[in-house]
């Protein structure tokens, strides 16, 4: 089942997600639905708040990035095979040089900006089996995880932009809130007139 993606301006995108337990209702189906929704929208990550649920759950599948000509074969192979579910995640450490990358977000269509993030993270999380893991990720995989992790903390990539950049995109963000944009996937807009 493909769900609509919640657009910029919806209060659920600003909520800090609640931890969930292994008996969360229909969790397996929810995760499958999230993957289906993300793949339908050609995304590389999707967090539960983006489908209207303020819980600590996000998914990542970096395979679309593996097509980039800017990467070496090892990087392409890593990205092609990285698909993971993160439940109750907590970033323990961010380290290394900050580097810029042009980010977008399924909740903020048609807005892409350079965002600077640390290159390496240590994260504690559970997969679907609820066994706690601590792992280190770097490069594009770390970046996608950081972006999705921000969602479960109520943070959007636009929050990381300079005041000038925020001013320049203000009208586009307003248009998203009002549903005055077209996305190639189903969306739910917060302030759409006549709804």
From TrEMBL:
CDD domains: Pep_deformylase. Its cofactor is Fe(2+). Fe cation binds at residues 105, 147, 151. Its EC number is 3.5.1.88. It is an enzyme of class 3 (hydrolase). Binds 1 Fe(2+) ion. The keyword Hydrolase applies. It comes from the Bacteria. One of its GO terms (molecular function) is peptide deformylase activity. InterPro entries: Peptide_deformylase (IPR023635), Peptide_deformylase_sf (IPR036821). It catalyses: N-terminal N-formyl-L-methionyl-[peptide] + H2O = N-terminal L-methionyl-[peptide] + formate. Keywords: Hydrolase, Iron, Metal-binding, Protein biosynthesis. GO terms for biological process: translation. The active site is at residue 148. Pfam families: Pep_deformylase. HAMAP family: Pep_deformylase (MF_00163). Removes the formyl group from the N-terminal Met of newly synthesized proteins. Requires at least a dipeptide for an efficient rate of reaction. N-terminal L-methionine is a prerequisite for activity but the enzyme has broad specificity at other positions. Belongs to the polypeptide deformylase family. This is Peptide deformylase. It comes from Flavobacterium orientale.
């Amino acid at each position: 089942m493909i769900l609509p993606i919640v657009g910029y301006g919806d209060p659920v995108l600003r909520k800090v997600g609640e931890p969930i337990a292994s008996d969360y209702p229909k969790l397996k189906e929810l995760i499958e639905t999230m993957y289906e929704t993300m793949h339908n929208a050609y995304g590389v990550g999707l967090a539960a708040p983006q489908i209207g649920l303020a819980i600590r759950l996000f998914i990542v599948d970096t395979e679309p990035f593996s097509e980039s000509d800017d990467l070496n074969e090892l990087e392409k192979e890593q990205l092609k095979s990285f698909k993971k579910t993160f439940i109750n995640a907590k970033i323990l450490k961010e380290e290394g040089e900050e580097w810029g990358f042009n980010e977008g977000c399924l909740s903020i269509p048609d807005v892409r900006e350079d965002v600077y993030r640390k290159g390496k993270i240590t994260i504690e999380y559970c997969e679907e089996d609820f066994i706690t893991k601590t792992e280190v990720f770097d490069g594009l995989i770390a970046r996608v995880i950081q972006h999705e992790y921000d969602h479960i903390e109520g943070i959007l990539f636009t929050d990381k932009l300079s005041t000038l950049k925020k001013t320049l995109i203000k009208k586009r963000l307003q248009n998203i809130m009002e549903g005055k944009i077209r996305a190639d996937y189903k969306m739910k807009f917060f302030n759409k007139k006549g709804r």
